[in-house]
Sequence to fold (73 residues):
Amino acid sequence: MSDLVTIGRFASRPEAVVVQSLLRSAGIEALMPEFNALMADYDPSMMEHGWRLMVHADDAEEARGILEEAQRS
Fold:
């Protein structure tokens, strides 16, 4: 299994979920490590750096390309 890399940080959970869905629809497994922890015991100070979206290192280049294309649309 390859290492995970952060491909983006998002200010809101809904934004991160939409991007996660976009990547998953392209066949890329995308994970949000803070999702369950923050839902269980939400502390706004934990969101200082935003919602991280991570993919396997092998998929990072393709995932970044998909995100760039989506931002241009």
User: Anything to note?
Assistant: The longest helix spans residues 13-25. The CA atoms of residues 6 and 54 lie 4 Å apart. The longest strand covers residues 4-10. The beta strands are 4-10, 30-31, 51-56.
